[in-house]
Amino acid sequence: MTHPHQPSTSHDDHRETEVLVVGGGVAGVSLLYALTARGVPAMLIDKGTVGSQGASSIPAALLNPHRGRTGRATPLDVAGLATVWQWAERLEAEGAATGAHRSGVLRIASSARQRELWRRLEGPLPLTSADFPAHVSAKFGGMLVADGGWLEPRRWLAALTRTAVAGGAVVAEGTELLALSGTGTSLARTSRTTVSATEVVLCLGAYDADTLRLPRLETAPGLAVGVALAAQPAGEGATVPIAGTLGIVFTGAGAVISGTAHSGDGADVERLVAAASWFVPGVAGAEITGVWRGTRARRPSGVPVVRRLRGGLTLFGALGGRGFLCSALLAEALAKRLATRLAER
Q1: What is the radius of gyration, based on Cα positions, of the chain?
Q2: Residues 204 and 309 in one domain
Q3: Which of 9, 99, 287, 331 could form a disulfide with 34 if both were Cys (CB 3.0 to 4.6 A apart)?
Q4: Do strands 313-317 and 305-310 pair parallel, antiparallel, or not at all (unpaired)?
Q5: Within this chain, do residues 209 and 305 fall inside the same structural domain, yes or no?
Q6: Tell me, what's the pLDDT at 298?
Q7: Both 274 and 161 in a single domain?
Q8: 123-127, 294-298, 316-320: which has the minimum mean pLDDT?
Q9: What pTM was computed for the model?
Q10: Where does residue 249 fall: left (phi above 0), alpha (psi -120 to 50 degrees), or beta otherwise?
Q11: End-to-end CA gap in the chain
């Protein structure tokens, strides 16, 4: 169906726009918002509904630039986090409910050696085991990433989409791209209409590289499990999420545990919950309230793809597990580039 803020389209409709964004995940929605903020006419289509598929449908997304065993933050991740908070402040000033939580993020060291390695990092606050909240087991201590936090993806994507639509963008859900042709101005044939666009940006997440003839990406199944906690964490730091080989976000009466899956079956769910109980013992035996499965796409280098495939066609994706961390920054840069190209035509 079409986005509720837009009129319905029929198969006979023909639309014109400057930029057509294909894909309603975090990359596509972020780009739509960034384009609209620059006054660039844009339309987004998605074969399903915005934010309902793939990695963008995860129930809670950590924002932590200090990733990996070393905990070192890349310039991209640091700048990406800053842009998320800038967007959140802007949206909230306009009255939007963003689902953004600047709570900080805890990282738990797996050894004394890792703890000492992290102490050399600039930015995070070193923690001893005694500094951690009572519900967290941290034998070797760890660190607090004070600028980190987490997002409720459904609310975040809804806020971006509503603001873009209010600014003149068009969102058509239930609309699949069937064919793309032309040079200069592209003609996109979809399951509902045809669209003439000067620029087309593919934000497809994990796609079939052979069928679509696009750059090949690595894929990894992702898994998130919602659990109900019998005893709610209490005291200072009770709501600060945990990031590492898995993520634990505390949400009201429970928590969302996320990580990489093998196959996403029931055994994977049990393994993920068992692993989380090493860090938060109260998770052991918790009632499972929901399971999310999806596929993350990335390049072997881990660097996101923002690549012009040919005149008028750009690929934006390969965000891996960093979509909500980096999409805003990358979308702003791409929107600026597209706006410049359109102005020069």
Answers
A1: 21
A2: yes
A3: 331
A4: antiparallel
A5: yes
A6: 85
A7: no
A8: 294-298
A9: 0.92
A10: beta
A11: 34
Lookup: tokens for 254: 């429970």
Total of domains in the chain: 2
Question: Kindly report the CA angle at 164 between 161 and 166, in degrees rounded to 5?
Answer: 105
Q: What angle do CA 19, 302, 48 make, to 5 degrees?
A: 45
Q: What is the CATH number of the domain that holds 178?
A: 3.50.50.60
Q: How big is the chain, counted in residues?
A: 345
Q: What is the pLDDT of residue 183?
A: 64
Structure tokens at 142: 């760890």
Any idea which residue has 């410049």 for tokens? 340
Token readout for 255 is 């928590």
DSSP H stretches of helix in 180-240? 209-212
Alpha-carbon span 62 to 139, nearest angstrom: 23
- The two three-digit tokens of residue 94, written as one number: 């306009």
Q: Kindly report, residue by residue over 289-309, the tens digit of the pLDDT.
A: 999 988 888 888 889 999 999
Encoded tokens for 157: 């994507």
Residue with tokens 């065993």: 69
Q: Out of 94-108, 181-195, 213-227, which region has the weakest mean confidence (pLDDT)? A: 181-195
Rounded CA-CA distance 178/191 in Å is: 7
pLDDT grade for 208, boundaries at 50, 70 and 90:
confident
The whole-angstrom separation of Cα 74 and Cα 108 is 20
Are 54 and 26 within 8 A, CB to CB? no
Calculate ∠ Cα 107-112-115, nearest 5°: 35
Domain range for residue 181?
14-57+154-216+301-344
